[in-house]
Amino acid sequence: MPQHDELHVFLNDERIGTLSQDDGALSFAYTPEYLQNSNAYPLSQNLPLSADTFHDPVVEIFFSNLLPDERIRDTVAMILHISRENTFGLLKHIGADCAGAVSFYPIGQTPQSPASPAYRELSDGEAYKILDNLGQRPLDVGDEGVRISGAGSQEKLVACVKDGKIALPLYGTPSTHIIKPVIPNFTDSVFNEYFCMKLAQKAGLPVADCDVLMLNDEPFYVVTRFDRETIDGTTKRLHQEDFCQILNVPPKLKYQEDGGPGIEDCMKRMTEMHLPGFDRLRFVRLVIFNFLIGNCDAHAKNYAVLYHGGKPSLAPAYDLLSTMVYETMSKRFAMTIGSEARMGMFRKENFEQMAKSCDLNPKLILTELHNMANTLPRQAQTLAEELNTVHPDAVYGRIVWEIGRLCRQVLE
Questions:
Q1: What is the residue-wise DSSP string for 194-219?
Q2: CA spacing 20 to 30 A to 325: which of 12, 186, 261, 310?
Q3: With a cut of 50, which residues of the chain have pLDDT below it?
Q4: In the chain, what is the straight-line distance between the N-terminal and C-terminal CA atoms, in Å?
């Protein structure tokens, strides 16, 4: 007997379409009412406003990219008694608060009214217990009223933080923060990411606000969601797409060496989307920064486009971590630069080659590389001294050393 099920799809509190599942195959269609709205904008670059019904693989790829990656998806699926490949079933259970402005509800249910948000405030003890248990219960899945999805492969709690206190948003109330415990086997990862994000800010890159929260004498990394906007106490979602979604690539192919997007693919699509020149230059500056801090994990899902009223702009930097300070992590950059990916082999000529393949002025890109490589070691040293007075940790010195080495490598 054929199996059919539907989810209503919302952008903020406006229903825009229906996600359907028929015998495991997904389809998506916009509502006629949304198509007639003069302010309507597409859910995705690959799902343009149209009266047509969209089918797999484009539907599966976009919606699957909203879910956790790899091991976390496996654990969530096991808790919910759903197949890890069942994108529809997972979104039905945890899709009330996702990346961007999109949310999913069974027929008859609607998002929580922005005028009456629902939260469950946690004591420090409760918050620590949930955060400490993320390996067994990712995203606090299964807790009453918690229907939150967080993309990515790292354990995290998607929540709200105010004055150092954590609250769980319930029934689709928008979350405002992402909280990460230390990565298993990398006990200084919280301070590593905090340092790299603050350094990006010093380097003039737009970044999401972040902080370190101490619970039970343990550090947790807290970042404010850049796809949320709080005005007069009311939080509104801003829509976004990461570059796997934009380029119609499944999340399991996020690394270029697996067949995922490269720098040239991202740049070409930004041009097609008419992003302004300064956004494309910001993207290249972020690529350069990721190289110079030794962040080999800067794959396509770690770059995104944010939509303000449907108008695209490059999202602030996020998920910045110096992976080179860890011996067991890959020493290959996630995207090739001028046909090179081995960290020890990069030279300025690779950046010149990348500029040419992206139809950029090589002299401009080499100037950006030279300027950042000249100033970053000093900025990193100053930042390390500042942070050691607040959150002392030996990882800052290791990152500073790595930055110095990589900067010298491309200046020679």
A1: HHHHHHHHHTT--B--EEEEEETTEE
A2: 261
A3: 1
A4: 68
